[in-house]
Amino acid sequence: MAELKTQATKQKASEFLNTIEPEQKRKDAFVLLKMFEKVTGEKAVMWGTSIVGFGKYHYKSERSTQEGDWMLVGFSPRKQNLTLYIMHGNKDNPALEKLGKHKLSGGIGGCLYINKLSDVDQSVLPQLLKTSFEYMKKTNNVV
Fold first, then answer.
1. What whole-number distance in Å separates Cα of residue 14 and Cα of residue 100?
2. Could you read off the pLDDT of 10-41 as tens digits, one per residue?
3. Fewest CB within 10 angstroms: 1, 8, 60, 77, which?
């Protein structure tokens, strides 16, 4: 049985976020941390070395023997952008049109990419986050 490479760690999210450069990306990451904690009601958990995740479910691939635990939603302050793992349940969400400057990746879940928080409407982002979090809980039977 193949395990996921990226797993939950004991590292504190705040310790990781304090290493982010430049300063504005670090500040944006801490705003996201507070937003995710408030919307999900979950504590931040580091997944691998660079993903801050919230909640978890057991993943089992239908196409391979891979399985393990994975976060319900999360984000990563990457070098080129802020990557938000909140697209499950939001593919056709009309709120995306109101969000502001962003990009989406393909795939089943996909990711939302923003350069900086000031590029997007920060009243829309929590709505997208909540939709994805609730969708992931429901579709993965998480109580």
1. 27
2. 999 999 999 999 999 999 999 999 999 999 99
3. 1
What is the C-alpha separation between 136 and 47, in angstroms, rounded?
Answer: 17
Q: Is the dihedral of CA 142, 99, 74, 33 positive or negative?
A: negative
Write down the domain spans for the chain: 13-138
CA–CA distances in Å: residue 44 to residues 10, 22, 35, 63, 72: 11, 22, 11, 29, 11
Among 118, 41, 27, which residue's Cα sits nearest to residue 72?
A: 41
Measured CA to CA, the distance from residue 61 to residue 4 in angstroms comes to 10
Beta carbons of 7 and 53 less than 8 angstroms apart: no
Class of the CATH domain delimited by 13-138: alpha beta
